[in-house]
Amino acid sequence: MRKGDIIQNIIIDTMAAEGKCVAKIDGRVIFLEGGAPGDTVDAQLFKIKSNFLEGKVTAIKKLSPNREQPFCGHFGTCGGCSWQHINYPTQLQYKQKQVVDNLERLGGLTLPPITPIMGSNKTRYYRNRLDFTFSAQRWLTWDEINNTGIVNEPALGFHIPRKFDKVFDVKECYLQGDPSNAIRLAAKEEAIKENIPFFNLRTQVGFLRTLTIRTANTGETMIILQVTYDKIEWIEKILTRLERDFKQITSFNYIINGKKNDTFSDLDIICWKGNPYITESMPSPIGKAALQFRVGPKSFYQTNSEQAFQLYKVAWELASFQGNELVYDLYTGTGTIANFVAGSVKKVIGLEYVSAAIDDAKINSQINGVTNTEFFAGDIKDLLDDNFLSVHGKPDVVITDPPRGGMHEDVCQMLLKALPEKIVYVSCNPATQARDLKILSEKYEIMAVRPVDMFPHTMHVENVVSLKRI
Ligand SMILES: C[S@@+](CC[C@H](N)C(=O)[O-])C[C@H]1O[C@@H](n2cnc3c(N)ncnc32)[C@H](O)[C@@H]1O
């Protein structure tokens, strides 16, 4: 076998952790880009290693019964909802498999019977946040280059996967509900009409950089416009147009960013009009009035608001609180989990490093009449030390919800010292969760594993694991 060879009639068996298809040829594993489990395909080899091969599907000979017609015109280009061609029950099956494979193989963990993954009621328009990039030159397909004569057009859309300088123009996106599509199209139209320069990602010249749209289940909408320098006439042209056309927008913000990259966690956000936050609402797990959560422009909020409630309910159920516990909510964000469980326990302490999120967390306790929470800003690996435990008390229960990278090893070691009776670990990355659970398994046993799907049509999966001190 050589690079470039086409292998015919490969039957795809399954899906691997990163969403690639997996098959076997002559006893060797081949990872494939494209295809669906159950397809028979031809594929061209591009990597040959002693223990595995990698290839790209070039032709589909027989379609899998697990397939479905993708509903989005951008499917195949965007990379955002790359599992649209697989029906939802099959997607769920592979997400659950991903969790089990990671915990068993990577973590070497012994698992109790797994509760079947909880699917999302909404499989379209489920996201509450999208970040779009302006680009002076939209990405063109070969067909457009060869057959349309288009050479240069601006774009407001998403990056092509793994290509920092290539942005394709989004016509319609099924990820975020109204008025997301209309806001994006209006912002782009206004910018073109007023000749406001789009940023060129290669030359780093231009004005308009990104547009973030955050929608809440209360109907409130936030926009964050990011530009390279302070030219208020241009900023106001866009914001005034959006203000005129979209009464749903309750929070208008902009950021001046002259840096090389688009991240804005270290930059000032200027609230042009409206509130510097939007409000999400979530049912209480104990049947009290719905909780209200204020979310500022820099704060994290679970991107699928409806499933966030299901996820928190799973964590709350697995913690099976008695009412007298001291709970630590690690990586608390805007204190959502802390406030969600506060009514069921004695006290909750939330830790998080974005100080603006901690400000929101405190406000969230206030507006919900929650008086038994305390929040601290800082990196958890530095905050959570012997001194912190002796001042605030050792937790009975820890709920931890780290970012994709998982917990720092020092944090795992600190948990082994603090030795809460229960740990509930919420994760958006089963691989790092497996790594961390392996460390914790020194003193904890896994009681339950409950995957939850927050991101239909993607390979991503959320997983909740409860642990009991041995
Ligand atoms: C997956 S989010 C969870 C937030 C929250 N539990 C929720 O459900 O909305 C992870 C959070 O961890 C915070 N974070 C990331 N690394 C951190 C660190 N080293 N120390 C403290 N917080 C951190 C992020 O800012 C983010 O708010």
Enumerate how many helices there are, as a single number: 11
- Mean pLDDT comes to 95
Share of β-strand residues: 25-35%
List cofactors, ions and other ligands: S-adenosylmethionine
Helical content, roughly? 25-40%
Between the first and last Cα atoms, what is the distance in angstroms?
51 Å
Q: Given the helix and strand composition, which structural class is it?
A: alpha/beta
Which sequence of strands runs across the widest sheet? 9-8-7-10-11-12-13
Largest sheet: 7 strands, mixed
**Count of strand segments:** 22
Rg calculated over all Cα atoms: 24 Å
Q: Which geometry do the CA atoms define?
A: globular
Which key phrases capture this entry?
seven-stranded mixed sheet; binds S-adenosylmethionine
Explain this structure.
By secondary structure, the chain is α/β, with parallel strands linked by helices. Helices cover 25% and strands 29% of the residues. It contains eleven helices and 22 strands. The strands form four sheets. A seven-stranded mixed beta sheet has the order 9-8-7-10-11-12-13. The protein has a seven-stranded mixed beta sheet with strand order 18-17-16-19-20-22-21, sandwiched between helices. The protein has a six-stranded mixed beta sheet with strand order 1-5-6-4-3-2, with no helix packed on it. Strand 10 and strand 11 form a beta hairpin. Helix 1 packs parallel to helix 11 and helix 3 crosses helix 4. The longest helix is centred in the first third of the chain and has 19 residues. The relative contact order is 0.11. Bound molecules: S-adenosylmethionine. S-adenosylmethionine binds next to helix 6.
